Amino acid sequence: QVQLQQSGPRLVKPSQTLSLTCAISGDSVSSNSAAWNWIRQSPSGGLEWLGRTYYRSKWSSDYAVSLRSRITINPDTSRNQFSLQLNSVTPEDTAVYFCARDFGVILSCGLDVWGQGTTVTVS
Amino acid sequence: QSALTQPPSVSGSPGQSVTISCSGTSSDIGYYNRVSWFQQPPGTAPKLMIYEVSNRPSGVPDRFSGSKSGSTASLTISGLQAEDEADYFCSSYTKFNTLIFGGGTKLTVL
Question: Residue B88's beta-bridge partner residues?
Answer without folding.
Answer: B39, B105
